[in-house]
Amino acid sequence: MRRHQIKTKVGLSVSLLTVGIIFLFSSVINDHFEYQLKQLISKQQFSMVSEICDSIDADLQDAQQALIAEAPLFLSVDPGRPEEAQQLLDSRPALHTIFDNALFLFSAEGKIIVESPYIKGRRGRDIAFREYYRKTVATMRPQISDPYVSTHTPGKPAVILTVPLVNPQGRLVAILAGSLDLTRDNFLGKLSRVKIGDTGYLYLYNSSRMLIMHPDPSRIMKQDLKPGVNRAFDKGIAGFEGTEESLNSKGVSSLTTVRHLKNTDWILAANFPVQEAYAPIAKAKKYANIAALAGAGASVGIVWLLMHYQMAPLSRFTERIRTLSMRDGVPEQVPPSTAAEIADLGSAFNEMVLRLATEHLALQEAITNLENEKAKTQAIIAAMGVGLTIMNTEFRVIYQNQQGIALMGNHVGKLCYQAFENHDSVCPGCPMALAFQDGLIHSSVRSVSPFGQQIFTEVTASPLRNASGRIIAGIEVVRDITEKRRMEETIEHLAFHDTLTGLPNRHLFHDHLRQAIAFAARNNQLLAVMFIDLDSFKAVNDEFGHAIGDQLLQGVAKRLKACCCRSGDTIARYGGDEFLVILSDLQNSENAAVVARHVVDELARVFVLSEQPVQSSVSIGISLYPQDGQDGETLVRNADLAMYQAKEHGRNDFCFYRRAAEEAAAERPEESSVLPALPIDVGRCLTHPPASERPGSERPC
């Protein structure tokens, strides 16, 4: 009975192995050809979409060139004589062939001069609100619009192409435009009727998610596809061009191809349902599986016949072993067999049972020693006082000591990058991964929140090798350095911030100013430096005491933050009662004047400090980059000069820097610590500079 069980098990195992190998090879071959065919289908679909995309680009360019070619004829049109303009527009058959909705001639002010075909009562209608008109006037270049609802053919979606008519003096005279009805059979309308296979289709959209052309007319001009629904749709907006599998708006898995047009921000896309696209592949796999199944059946039959013949001697050997008995604690030897293989097996069996008797005691002793070493190792690890984690080369945690569990949580049996960082793969710069790669010790500092509270840890990873030197695991030591990290951050903050007001100090201010100047230089922008000095601050200290003076400085800092709260602005305490402000990305100097006036007004309001009303005011000097200086030191110095000018005007005011103030300051005695009064023309102190002033323009003062 047992002989038959052995035969059955061995025969079944070999049969399963044979069938498994056959189906493995079949699966590998099927997967290879499936991959190749999918790549071929994707490339063919991309090539088709690319050709259509190039055709649309060419048609749009031809249409635009046709308008440009006819534009000179309309330069001499008199808007006051619309009948002549109507006759000229009606006589352009080439343009009517291209633009099937209508041709238009708009005035420079955005009024309809004439349109063809003529519709009564529409001349003079204002279209200045249209986006295509605004872009044409702003750029003075031909434009291709996004879809809009036409009023010439009411309710129909349309696209319009415009060409500005500019006279020799460079002035806009009129705008020539041609409109395409997206529901008609033009080169855009035809897209909705293009079929890919039986159910595939094309559609056109822009970077604002608006559908320009779609087989479903009700979706044209709508932004009804939300982000995240169609991955390929979203990637196309981000700049992707190619083919990939994704879900369409109806949730159907499709082979989607996206390609950008060159002349506009439009994107042409093709959706081909995967079920239809890959139908030939599924059919080929079906036939391949049938062939593999037939081959497997034939192989199983052959294996069973061979096993019956080859297992006969082993069956006889098994019967002999079954009848053996024990004598004085030693197994009886197996009698010799006539089959050479079985005889060798019998001799090996007899030697094995003798070795087992002698090795049993050695094994028991080794187990006892191993348990002692384990207890010693656990005691050493516990005494280290740090978190310790051991993981295999697949990054699965196989051990954590108690300190490690208390610090990071119990994650034994989990992958470390999933347990500690919630990642799907090995973390970039992982010290354990680096240790596995080069066999060296690596360390890093990382921020984790194992129990909902953020902590900083120092991780040291080292490889663990076996006797042959091969890396079999890794040891990770984790130390909690949260307090050390917070102390370093506190020290760094104190080094660059004022302890009284919490504002950046002069070191951090000059660093921010250098960065702001570099950014303004790259982008041709205007920035301002405001030098703010409290008027009569010493009198406040003398009358109320230094504690009130400190509270006043804190109150000033708080109000300055409220006045200058843009992300690009910097407010710093420069020392004593002096504050500096960087105003970046200004349109003109009037922007700085508005902020300065607001600061003056806010800081002139009474401060209530320890239930004591304190009246204060400030004098502000303003220098502008680039006209008042190309570097930070010059801008601060010139703002300081302008501040003294504001004080000489009576304080509680602001002034822009002017070169005359610098020349007067240069004539002052070096030993004087107080700026003398300058001969100032109040009308030329730029407390309200012209709004048109830009970087590089002439300053009036």
From TrEMBL:
<keyword id="KW-0547">Nucleotide-binding</keyword>
<keyword id="KW-0597">Phosphoprotein</keyword>
<keyword id="KW-0472">Membrane</keyword>
<keyword id="KW-0808">Transferase</keyword>
<feature type="transmembrane region" description="Helical">
    <location>
        <begin position="287"/>
        <end position="307"/>
    </location>
</feature>
<dbReference type="GO" id="GO:0005524">
    <property type="term" value="F:ATP binding"/>
</dbReference>
<dbReference type="InterPro" id="IPR029151">
    <property type="entry name" value="Sensor-like_sf"/>
</dbReference>
<dbReference type="Pfam" id="PF08448">
    <property type="entry name" value="PAS_4"/>
</dbReference>
<dbReference type="InterPro" id="IPR013656">
    <property type="entry name" value="PAS_4"/>
</dbReference>
<dbReference type="InterPro" id="IPR000700">
    <property type="entry name" value="PAS-assoc_C"/>
</dbReference>
<keyword id="KW-1133">Transmembrane helix</keyword>
<dbReference type="InterPro" id="IPR033479">
    <property type="entry name" value="dCache_1"/>
</dbReference>
<keyword id="KW-0175">Coiled coil</keyword>
<dbReference type="Pfam" id="PF02743">
    <property type="entry name" value="dCache_1"/>
</dbReference>
<dbReference type="InterPro" id="IPR035965">
    <property type="entry name" value="PAS-like_dom_sf"/>
</dbReference>
<dbReference type="InterPro" id="IPR052155">
    <property type="entry name" value="Biofilm_reg_signaling"/>
</dbReference>
<dbReference type="GO" id="GO:0005886">
    <property type="term" value="C:plasma membrane"/>
</dbReference>
<dbReference type="GO" id="GO:0016301">
    <property type="term" value="F:kinase activity"/>
</dbReference>
<feature type="coiled-coil region">
    <location>
        <begin position="353"/>
        <end position="380"/>
    </location>
</feature>
<dbReference type="Pfam" id="PF00990">
    <property type="entry name" value="GGDEF"/>
</dbReference>
<dbReference type="InterPro" id="IPR000160">
    <property type="entry name" value="GGDEF_dom"/>
</dbReference>
<keyword id="KW-0067">ATP-binding</keyword>
<dbReference type="InterPro" id="IPR029787">
    <property type="entry name" value="Nucleotide_cyclase"/>
</dbReference>
<dbReference type="InterPro" id="IPR003660">
    <property type="entry name" value="HAMP_dom"/>
</dbReference>
<dbReference type="InterPro" id="IPR043128">
    <property type="entry name" value="Rev_trsase/Diguanyl_cyclase"/>
</dbReference>
<feature type="domain" description="PAC">
    <location>
        <begin position="441"/>
        <end position="493"/>
    </location>
</feature>
<protein>
    <recommendedName>
        <fullName>Diguanylate cyclase</fullName>
    </recommendedName>
</protein>
<keyword id="KW-1003">Cell membrane</keyword>
<dbReference type="Pfam" id="PF00672">
    <property type="entry name" value="HAMP"/>
</dbReference>
<keyword id="KW-0418">Kinase</keyword>
<keyword id="KW-0812">Transmembrane</keyword>
<feature type="domain" description="GGDEF">
    <location>
        <begin position="525"/>
        <end position="659"/>
    </location>
</feature>
<keyword id="KW-0902">Two-component regulatory system</keyword>
<dbReference type="GO" id="GO:0000160">
    <property type="term" value="P:phosphorelay signal transduction system"/>
</dbReference>
<feature type="domain" description="HAMP">
    <location>
        <begin position="308"/>
        <end position="361"/>
    </location>
</feature>
